[in-house]
Design brief:
The strands form four sheets. The chain has a nine-stranded mixed sheet, with helices on both faces. Helices cover about 30% and strands about 25% of the residues. The longest helix has 16 residues. It contains 15 helices and 22 strands. The chain is α/β, with parallel strands linked by helices and about 475 residues long. Helix 4 packs across helix 10, helix 4 crosses helix 11 and helix 10 packs across helix 11. The protein is globular. The chain folds into three domains: about 90 residues, Udp-n-acetylmuramoylalanyl-d-glutamate--2,6- Diaminopimelate Ligase, Chain: A, domain 1, CATH 3.40.1390.10; about 210 residues, UDP-N-acetylmuramoyl-L-alanine:D-glutamate ligase (3-Layer(aba) Sandwich); about 140 residues, Alpha-Beta Complex (Protein-Tyrosine Phosphatase, Chain A), CATH 3.90.190.20.
Length: about 475
């Protein structure tokens, strides 16, 4: 497990590139795509993005110390102007694909064990739990933040050096992306947390989601291990299509890791009870929602797949750091509780989070600010009306629905018997008024898709301004 030496000659072989210019002739060990953070003596990939073209920043990359530059055929600038710049230039058909090809080679050369995680909900929490469990046995590299796409995954992999384990999160919103990312990540252990209606605009239906997510299990080698959620029939189905070792978890009696129960003795604390091979083990975790037991069980399963003692792994999970804007419990100096879950939303995650809200010991009102769930296609109206019904079950006292489908949410809530105060607003700025109405003991629950940016409501509540 060492640094990989990248020269223009070796790089061109690994990514099917063509050497256009050789002025450097040496090797580098670092890779970057953003000139703002590009390290010296590195390889710069000029990526074509939706907003920016990396080729426009090649000069800046060279000024910052890039020694090898990868450009895209057909989009490259006149490379001859860099003839005296002291850099090597390599061209490829697609720089983003080339970045992935280099990452795949890097992953192979690293040679450690990779746990790769996908699913409609709970990916990031499961990633953090799994990393914390594995850290009891060795060094771990984990996906930072939300680097789970065709750019973030390679950039994460380039950080692999002496670590024993990698815990990698991958996501999708279009067919074929999981297969591509899994090919780069090369999992030894794969976790598919669940399958739910998400990204339907690109994946078409929940069956399409299952097929897409199931590509992670299909990417496992013959000696790999699938961690299977027996409480999700879609996960069970796609797992049945692969002939690999399986470790199962869930509430059903025949699960390898059985979830016996979850308690919440105080606000923000959980006690999770598992049974493994007839032995009961218990661990206290910080967090909200009984669904976290499934995330914890999956993490324990991954650790078991890599030969770890499950009790030690379960204990290690308590040290996991919570991911930002994901059921994060916060408090104002005025005594208002805030549940910040505004990172993203789909029907499954909304249901789980609202169930958590319903079960919290709250002395004041439950106030929900709910933004649109995006990328649901033609099913959006009905799924937002179903969200409204979940609001009623969560015993919400005040509802602020935000976005294009806000009326559907409020209509669904009223149809289910909601009699509290309900508001329909267009944008996050329009929802700020609710922060002026907060009283000590109230619980403000905030959740919506990333595009709605409801963190502005959370920030306003914490500052005490509307």
């Amino acid at each position: 497990m060492t640094h990989i030496a990248i020269s223009a000659a070796s790089l061109s072989k690994w990514i099917n590139g063509e050497i256009l210019l050789t002025n450097f002739g040496g090797s580098v060990h670092l890779v970057g795509t953003d000139t703002r953070t590009l390290p010296e003596n590195s390889c710069y990939f000029a990526l074509l993005g939706e907003r920016n073209d990396g080729h426009d920043f090649v000069d800046e990359a060279i000024r910052r110390g890039a020694k090898i530059v990868v450009v895209q055929r057909g989009n490259r600038p006149d490379w001859t102007r860099w003839a005296d710049s002291g850099v090597d230039i390599v061209s490829v058909d697609d720089t983003t694909a080339g970045l992935g090809m280099l990452a795949k080679h890097w992953r192979r050369q690293w040679g450690g064990h990779a746990v790769v995680i996908t699913g409609s909900n709970g990916k990031t929490t499961t990633k953090e739990y799994t990393a914390a469990a594995l850290e009891t046995s060795g060094d771990v590299l984990r996906t930072p933040g939300n680097w789970n796409n065709h750019i973030g995954l390679p950039l994460t992999i380039f950080g692999l050096q002496q670590q024993r384990y990698a815990v990698l999160e991958i996501g999708t919103n279009a067919p074929g992306e999981i297969a591509t990312l899994a090919d780069i990540a090369q999992p030894n252990v794969a976790i598919l947390t669940n399958v739910a209606p998400a990204h339907l605009l690109g994946l078409g239906s929940i069956d399409g989601v299952a097929t897409e997510k199931g590509a992670l299990f299909r990417a496992l080698p013959k000696d790999g291990t699938a961690i299977v959620n027996l409480d999700d029939p879609y996960v069970v189905k796609v797992a049945g299509d692969v002939a690999v070792h399986k470790i199962t978890y869930g509430t059903v009696p025949h699960a390898d890791i059985r979830i016996l129960g979850v308690e919440s003795p105080t606000l923000g604390n959980l006690v999770i009870h598992l049974s493994i091979a007839g032995k009961s083990i218990t661990q206290q975790l910080n967090g909200l929602g009984v669904h976290l037991a499934h995330n914890a069980a999956a993490a324990v399963g991954a650790a078991m797949a890599l030969g770890m003692d499950p009790e030690v792994a379960f204990c290690g999970i308590q040290h996991a750091q919570p991911a930002g804007h994901r059921l994060t419990l916060r408090h104002t100096i005025q005594g208002v509780h805030i549940i910040d879950d505004c990172y993203n939303a789909n029907p499954g995650s909304m249901a789980a989070s609202l169930a958590a809200l319903a079960n919290l010991p709250i002395g004041g009102r439950r106030i929900a600010v709910l933004g649109d769930m995006l990328e649901l296609g033609e099913t959006s109206p009905i799924l937002h009306r179903q969200l409204g019904a979940a609001v009623q079950k969560a015993r919400v006292d005040v509802l602020v629905a935000v976005g294009q489908f806000a009326n559907d949410v409020l209509d669904g809530a009223k149809a289910a018997g909601f009699t509290g105060r309900g508001y329909v607003v267009a944008t996050n700025a329009d929802a700020l008024f609710i922060t002026d109405d907060l009283k000590p003991g109230d619980c403000l629950f905030v959740k919506g898709s990333r595009g709605i940016a409801l963190e502005k409501v959370v920030d306003a509540a914490l500052r005490g301004i509307g």
